[in-house]
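Chapter review: from sequence to fold.
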Amino acid sequence: MAPLARVSGKDLIDLPSDLYIPPDALAVFLEAFEGPLDLLLYLIRRQNMDILDIDVSEITRQYMDYIGAVEVMRFELAAEYLVMAATLAEIKSRMLLPRHESAEEDELDPRAELIRRLQQYERFKQAAEDIDTLPRMERDSFSVSASLPQLPSTQPHPDVDFMDMLLALRGVLERADLFTSHHVEKEKLSTRERMSAILSVLKEDQFVAFQSLFTVEEGRLGVVVTFLATLELVKEQLIEVVQAEVLGSIHVRARAAR
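The token string follows.
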């Protein structure tokens, strides 16, 4: 069985035997009106009457029926509804009075003021309904904002593959072979000294070409010692080796001091 209600987080299956519901606890209005003119305009439209030729007697009867229904349900009526009831009664009584033939042309229609108010109210009501159909912020559309994601200020360089370094070394060795015949004797070269020499020409804020570290005039031995010194500096994280694209040129710079 479906619960009748949910009270304090618990499902209520049966009504309590001692439950008391006051007679005025619940009431339903099928029509909601914003005032007496709104009610009158509704009654006129429902009867398909011309607003310039209102049947005051019929409209007054329907208006009083509505007032009576509200009073039966014990709801307080706004004073303006009672004022309008009195106005309708006055207009009805004035229209029932016989008119003098001599004064018919000069006497105003008792409904004239009511018709003027109804026409004015109808214009404003229609304007409000037209405005309500227009797109409205926070109902039909909502303001949004978007911002670009936080991007890193510096782009990390791709890692250099060891095979690419070997390919670059081969090109240096090929050029070094051209100077082999010019050396009568070879000096003993130190890897540690070559490491210091490489560091002395590198800067933290500037890349240099990998091939520029080599002196081809030293021959193969000098190229190999420079290459080993470069690998040792990479191992000790003293220099940074980067490559902008696959099989592209290799560049080196000193790492920033931590």
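Two observations follow directly from the output. The chain has a mean pLDDT of 76. The CA atoms of residues 175 and 243 lie 22 Å apart.
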